[in-house]
Amino acid sequence: MTDSNHTPSCYANTSTPYTYVPKMDNVYLSAIFSILGLISNLVAFIVLIKSCKQTQNTSRSFFLIFLGGLVVTDFMGLLVTGSFVMSFYITYVDWRLSDPTCHFCNFMGMSMVFYGLCPLLLGATMAIERFIGIKYPFARSSRLSKGRTVSMVLLVWFIAGSISLLPLTGFGSYHIQTPGSWCFINISSKRGDWAFSLLFSLVGLISITASFLLNTVSVVTLIKVCRGAGRRQRSRDHEVEMMVQLILIMIIATVCWCPLLMYILVSALTPPTSDDMVLSFTRMAGWNQKLDPWIYIIIKVFKLRRVTNSASIDVMAQLKQSLFTPSYPNCGLCFA
Q1: Are 94 and 8 spatial neighbours (Cβ–Cβ below 8 Å)?
Q2: Distance (Å, whole) CA 49 – CA 206
Q3: What angle do CA 244, 65, 203 make, to 5 degrees?
Q4: Could you give the CA distance from residue 261 to residue 208 in angstroms, rounded to a whole number?
Q5: Per-residue pLDDT tens digits for 158-200
Q6: What is the pTM of this model?
Q7: How many CA atoms lie within 13 A of 70 on its CB side?
Q8: How far apart are CA 164 and CA 203, in angstroms?
Q9: How far apart are CA 122 and CA 140, in angstroms?
């Protein structure tokens, strides 16, 4: 058994057990929700690919690239973190014995930070793109391309990945968390841990705040434009649809992530009150990855129904016209 004097840093100074034996009901529930989340993201990705192939609107195609990056991030986040948690749920592994060098603990902590920050940063990036697209459409159309849009998604992944790697350089650390089945940021009074916790929470909160401010301006501008659009109303339907999706993404991210980010921010400034709060707020944040894909799926279903209803109305109108409108094909013969 490992000597307590040589306990790795990710397991030191904690009362959290290194082995967690959950109730089977919790295991089944976690597995079901994780599988449903993966399936939802997969379906959403297929929907986005089909929409991207069908769309002829340039700004919408750029927006769909951002959405695709968000769906891929959510899918991989559920797959990676869910696999770790479920494997430890099922095998009852003793973390300190199976991972004496903290490699797995650090990797899981990095995954939690990376896949947590990516949706928030992507949401802020999409808000910036929509703000420029609605406020300054000519400037945006002349500078943005599909290649640059993909580069922006990759840049977001790079920034989130760089932040998640900081604890490996000594700036902050990852630590086993209650009840002993996962690892995350170590919230402590040490300077490095304090600074990294503050960085993580501030990046997330700033991203949400920026999304809220930019989306508010974009919605107000879009309302003004639509009121005077007249003949161009049909060309604004895509803009309205994109803003609706973006607003829903922002609301879900805010509701799911703000409790955890605020708790980490407060805990970094004052001693944390309970480790159980981190677990509860992290579970709430995890719902962001499960709820995001339903935005695209529901909107796609709504659009299909609207198209179907419009087609039905057109068919009925033509049928009424053919039944009740008199027709005189040989009218010239009637007076012969």
Answers
A1: no
A2: 30
A3: 75
A4: 10
A5: 999 999 999 999 898 898 887 777 889 988 878 888 899 999 9
A6: 0.82
A7: 31
A8: 12
A9: 18
